Amino acid sequence: MTAKCSHLMQVNSALPISSDD
What we know:
The model has no long low-confidence stretch (mean pLDDT 67). It is built from one helix and no strands. The relative contact order is 0.21. The protein has one helix at residues 3-13.
């Protein structure tokens, strides 16, 4: 997992939706 993906996951966790396929 790249650092960018990790960051996106952290952002998604704060959002009402989770678009991490």
